[in-house]
Amino acid sequence: MNKSHKVVIGLTGGIGSGKSTITAMFADLGIDIVDADIVARMVVMPKSEALKQISQHFGAQFIQSDGHLNRASLRSRIFSNEQDKTWLNNLLHPLIRQRMIKEIDQSTSSYCLFVAPLLIENNLQGIVNRIIVIDITEKEQIERTFLRDPSSRDEVRRIIASQISRTERLHHADDIIDNNKTDLAEVNKQVIILDQSYRKLAMK
Ligand code: ATP
């Protein structure tokens, strides 16, 4: 459980489950959002201390000419080398965690929504008070991801296989948003009900 006074609600779900869509609904209700993917990119911004250390450790070829990290090259380097992967995780994970906590502390809405695709996989349960899991069938997940970004269905299946299973994710849920229906007004109703319960929780 997080130690700051803020109520933090974690939102997670597999690829294409509707995290961005549902996050926008909470934002429309005036809730501050902290996005784990954005934080992870910010800690390696051009000129950052972490980027300097990556360049010293792996070589300047991992920094693009525009000063940004070459994520694709670094990903393939650590994919085949467990030691490199551990070194990078030891550098980045504490920085990412610190920055997430700082952003959560700076939020001013009645509670804060912390959006993390890999909330459970990366053991981030400790920084939230409750976890919302967005639930969707695998068939729908593949179709929607494919429609948004026509990569191959096999590629989408591969990413789903690398994430925890639908059953295991649901096992960690305090609250569930059913995003199978295509009627977004119905999904928004679920968001409004949860928002009201979190506002009450934040007042306690
Ligand atoms: P990713 O993990 O890939 O970033 P995500 O979990 O953020 O995805 P979204 O981008 O919100 O998911 O949704 C995936 C696609 O499905 C988008 O094109 C979105 O418009 C669509 N979508 C989301 N919810 C619904 C819904 N209830 N009905 C129909 N389409 C939906």
Describe the protein's architecture and organization.
The chain has 204 residues and is α/β, with parallel strands linked by helices. It folds into two domains: 126 residues, P-loop containing nucleotide triphosphate hydrolases (Rossmann fold, 3-Layer(aba) Sandwich), CATH 3.40.50; 65 residues, no CATH class. The protein is built from nine helices and five strands; from the N terminus they run βαβααααββαααβα. The protein has a five-stranded parallel beta sheet, sandwiched between helices. Helix 6 packs across helix 7. The longest helix has 25 residues. The radius of gyration is 18 Å and the shape is globular. 26% of the residues are buried. The mean pLDDT is 93. The site of adenosine-5'-triphosphate has 17 residues, from helix 1, helix 6 and helix 9. The site of adenosine-5'-triphosphate (ATP) has 17 residues, from helix 1, helix 6 and helix 9.
